[in-house]
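User: You have something folded?
Assistant:
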Amino acid sequence: MSFGSIYFDIIPLYILAALVILAEVRDIAFYICSNWIKVALICQYVKHGSWRQSATIQRCIGCVLRSKGKLIRNWEDKMGQSSVLVLHPIKTPMALLRHLIHLSGNTKTPSAVKSAIVGALRKGYETGQINGDVPSFQRILHLQGDDKIIWTFGERGTAEIMLVCHIATTILGARLPTHQPPSDTDHISAANHISQYCAYLVAHYPELLPEDAEWCKSLYKAVEKDAKRALIGNYSRDSWMSEVEYRRRFIQLLSAERNHEVLKDGARLAEQLAEEGEEVAWKALAAFWSEMILYVAPSDNIDGHMKALARGGELVTLLWALVTHLGIVGRSDNTTDAATVDV
């Protein structure tokens, strides 16, 4: 009994406590060595004349400023990627490990994503929609050129809109493993990458979004759980199927009455987009996602972005810094989305 108590109860507890302490020490070191704290120290040093008279404070500030920050991960021009729908599950030990510890894939930010976001920002200035605030989200998805409305989101919150369009984008891009994907145009690349990045934010860093973080996480988990239940055992790899039939299979599975409303709306939206033609649909989705990521960029959650900078930075944090320097500090609707829908 003594042997079991020591080796199976006490030692794992000590190991867990040590890991927690090490994680906290690492976060403190990240914060102290970050560029953020260096700028803050310089500002305080300039503002307080007494600091400039103290040799001790000068030495401490000098040590912080000279620190190389080797523990700090600089932003590697990568964006997190996550998805509610896993259309091609890979049954390997690494894939299982990634699922168990909730790791998300990171990919280098494509130039198409940067061009789409900057293009949306430039368009907002040219049309006069941006004037100190980003324009309120129109809650519609429309075709580019003729402004035909494809879908109206009503009173849904930002996270719900993201997940509905993420599901539609994923279904529209579904390809059989045996089929060659189409040429990766800028619209397809921008829409797919920003879509998966927004899903990644909802799942892992909802505090950077304009909604309640816990509600966003619970919504993502509920939708993900329902998607797995709907798709389990229905992953088709028949090479004879056309892309249209392949997508139709997923639309039928996710449109079932018992599924979550977000799943059903995402499937219906995918069906409507497919009817418009892929080229037109991808152009509309690329415009939608670039406007969406700009809409969520303004934030007053400075602590959340500081933590993001300490762990290497996030794309949305860079956009937050960019729009803040441009004088964009809020949204023209000046409201925080209310999460009132049951998950």
Observations:
- Residues 78-331 form one domain.
- The radius of gyration is 23 Å.
- The first strand starts at residue 78 and ends at 81.
- Residues 92-103, 334-343 have pLDDT under 50 and may be disordered.
